[in-house]
């Protein structure tokens, strides 16, 4: 490629990155504005974008101030619910995907088709019956009441990505190890597990993102005892009912965004591999 | 359940046959034992609610008035499909789907092609492009909402400067249906284009570069190479990306919910189901709407799979 083309693509890349990063920078900028600076463009630079004076008030508000009653529990709920549902679905999906890619049994295609169909369900279509049922059996507004529906988001995804990963593993190596005198279990632990681990790990990250992102289940199946951060954000109220707590929402938004951005930065390659191998294989 | 698949494989003695079919049976049992739990959980938490929704949709049932629960058969469906509010939400959803899909396809393809060819800053670009995909939708919705609001935002200031004062600084984006939908679509495009780009990038990687070179040598223009060589070669990836994005866009909920709450006729079908069930506790009607939405999604998936012959369960899975 000519140097001109190289630089041209470089410039285009920078434009793409600016377009990608502006909404993120904007959320950070807004979270750093004091109440007075929010609606007063004279206290900000770059056309009301970045604050002249950085204020940490919004972060104090959500961690120790008035909004902490809502935010801190919500953050814990998010972490617990997402980690538990990710673990459950990845464990179940690992067994399932292993069976699908390794064993010959009728119904394989049924399982894959069902999990695909499940991932096509409009999530909101499940909320109505679950809302009704959860109220009857006392799961409404509880953590298990969220973990169970989250499995419908994470399981199909996990089964698909893991099946795609497992199909690429050279399973003959397991038999070779067995021929060399290893027991089935040893062969599995020593040979297959290390090969499968990256796939399982990638799937876990993608499943975690999906659960972390959920708003529909959390906002409709909880009231106050199990709300996760995305739902809690939309229920924030300001100093009075009539003031939109813009700054506090942005601070909370930054806090929930940090873990996922860190995951993306560290595991960029794996996430891309996971996403594309789950969906497209030519 | 005792069909012997293994016997067709070759010349086997009776003893070996018995042994193999035992093994095959064992494998089947093990297969279901391993795959079963995931499958059962999936069915329990999805098929049951959907079945229950279908059942409830046949009733006139308010949560606040359980005694008044009455079987009305298809009355809820007839009411929904003849209600102008339903069609308004339908049009809103349709507009969002079409607009975001077209822009995301073009933009996503362009970004994928840049990611495929770029030399510097290759790694950084691939990482940065991935970030919006990982951002919580509600966060991105708030970000775009505040950016477009008159008092807190920067959109109007920037547009004012870029148009040399031509654009009014006090333009209210959330004052009307189409301007609200513009911001909703922009936010949706920002958030989900990366997903499209990544799937398309995977498709681009499958395009035979020798074929592309040959076309170039033969004097094909850039456009000819794109439409005659590149796109046909990545058909599978293209279809999968389009299918997933369409199904996602049809179910759009968080974005408009946060930005407008359905004001200015921006309520989508998903939001309609939500309001009906949770705010108005009209369980019967809400369920009917949920079933309608589900049927729409199924029809779209069916059309895609038939039209483009994408076999998602087997094609290309080695």
Automatic annotation (TrEMBL), chain B:
<keyword id="KW-0762">Sugar transport</keyword>
<keyword id="KW-1133">Transmembrane helix</keyword>
<dbReference type="InterPro" id="IPR035906">
    <property type="entry name" value="MetI-like_sf"/>
</dbReference>
<keyword id="KW-0813">Transport</keyword>
<feature type="transmembrane region" description="Helical">
    <location>
        <begin position="85"/>
        <end position="115"/>
    </location>
</feature>
<keyword id="KW-1003">Cell membrane</keyword>
<feature type="domain" description="ABC transmembrane type-1">
    <location>
        <begin position="90"/>
        <end position="304"/>
    </location>
</feature>
<keyword id="KW-0472">Membrane</keyword>
<feature type="transmembrane region" description="Helical">
    <location>
        <begin position="288"/>
        <end position="308"/>
    </location>
</feature>
<feature type="transmembrane region" description="Helical">
    <location>
        <begin position="34"/>
        <end position="55"/>
    </location>
</feature>
<dbReference type="GO" id="GO:0005886">
    <property type="term" value="C:plasma membrane"/>
</dbReference>
<comment type="similarity">
    <text>Belongs to the binding-protein-dependent transport system permease family.</text>
</comment>
<protein>
    <submittedName>
        <fullName>Multiple sugar transport system permease protein</fullName>
    </submittedName>
</protein>
<dbReference type="GO" id="GO:0055085">
    <property type="term" value="P:transmembrane transport"/>
</dbReference>
<keyword id="KW-0812">Transmembrane</keyword>
<feature type="transmembrane region" description="Helical">
    <location>
        <begin position="127"/>
        <end position="147"/>
    </location>
</feature>
<dbReference type="Pfam" id="PF00528">
    <property type="entry name" value="BPD_transp_1"/>
</dbReference>
<dbReference type="InterPro" id="IPR000515">
    <property type="entry name" value="MetI-like"/>
</dbReference>
């Amino acid at each position: 490629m000519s140097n001109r083309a190289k630089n041209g693509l470089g410039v285009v890349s920078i434009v793409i990155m600016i377009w990608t990063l502006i909404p993120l920078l904007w959320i950070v900028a807004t979270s750093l504005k004091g109440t007075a600076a929010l609606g007063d463009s004279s206290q900000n630079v770059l056309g009301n974008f970045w604050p002249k004076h950085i204020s940490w008030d919004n972060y104090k508000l959500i961690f120790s101030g008035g909004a902490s009653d809502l935010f801190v529990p919500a953050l814990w709920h998010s972490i617990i619910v997402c980690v538990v549902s990710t673990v459950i679905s990845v464990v179940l999906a690992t067994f399932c995907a292993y069976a699908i890619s390794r064993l010959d049994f009728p119904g394989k295609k049924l399982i894959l088709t069902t999990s695909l169909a499940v991932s096509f369900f409009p999530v909101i279509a499940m909320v109505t019956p679950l809302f009704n049922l959860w109220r009857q059996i006392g799961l409404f507004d509880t953590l298990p009441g969220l973990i169970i529906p989250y499995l419908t988001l994470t399981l199909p995804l996990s089964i698909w990505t893991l099946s795609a990963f497992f199909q690429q593993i050279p399973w003959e190596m397991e038999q070779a190890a067995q021929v060399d005198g290893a027991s089935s279990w040893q062969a599995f632990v020593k040979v297959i597990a290390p090969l499968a681990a990256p796939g399982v790990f990638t799937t876990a990250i993608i499943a975690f993102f999906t659960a972390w992102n959920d708003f529909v289940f959390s906002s409709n199946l909880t009231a106050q005892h199990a709300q996760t951060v995305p739902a809690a954000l939309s229920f924030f109220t300001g100093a009075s009912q009539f003031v939109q707590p813009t700054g506090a929402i942005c601070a909370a938004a930054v806090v929930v965004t940090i873990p996922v951005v860190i995951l993306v930065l560290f595991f960029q390659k794996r996430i891309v591999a996971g996403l594309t191998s789950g969906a497209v294989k030519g | 359940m005792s069909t012997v698949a293994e016997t067709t494989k070759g010349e086997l003695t009776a003893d070996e046959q018995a042994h193999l079919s035992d093994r095959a049976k064992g494998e089947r049992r093990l297969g279901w034992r391993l795959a079963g739990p995931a499958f059962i959980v999936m069915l329990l938490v999805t098929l049951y609610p959907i079945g229950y929704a279908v059942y409830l949709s046949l009733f006139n049932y308010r949560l606040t008035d359980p005694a008044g629960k009455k079987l009305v058969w298809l009355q809820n469906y007839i009411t929904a499909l003849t209600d102008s509010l339903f069609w308004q939400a339908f049009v809103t959803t349709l507009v969002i789907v079409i607009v975001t899909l077209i822009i995301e396809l073009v933009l996503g393809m362009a970004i994928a092609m840049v990611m495929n060819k770029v030399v510097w800053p290759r790694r950084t670009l691939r990482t940065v492009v991935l970030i919006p995909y990982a951002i919580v939708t509600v966060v991105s919705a708030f970000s775009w909402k505040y950016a477009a609001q008159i008092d807190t935002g920067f959109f109007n200031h920037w547009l004012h400067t870029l148009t040399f004062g031509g654009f009014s600084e006090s333009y209210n984006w959330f004052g009307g249906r189409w301007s609200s939908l513009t911001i909703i679509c922009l936010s949706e495009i920002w958030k989900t284009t990366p997903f499209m780009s990544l799937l398309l990038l995977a498709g681009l990687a499958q395009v035979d570069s020798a074929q592309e070179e040959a076309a170039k040598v033969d004097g094909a223009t850039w456009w000819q190479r794109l439409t005659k060589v590149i796109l046909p070669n990545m058909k599978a990836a293209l279809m999968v990306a389009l299918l997933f994005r369409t199904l996602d866009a049809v179910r759009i909920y968080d974005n408009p919910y946060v930005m407008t709450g359905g004001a200015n006729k921006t309520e989508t079908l998903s939001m309609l189901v939500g309001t009906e069930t949770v705010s108005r506790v009209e369980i019967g009607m809400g369920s009917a709407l949920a079933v309608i939405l589900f049927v729409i999604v199924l029809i779209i998936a069916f059309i895609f799979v038939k039209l483009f012959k994408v076999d998602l369960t087997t094609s290309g899975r080695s």
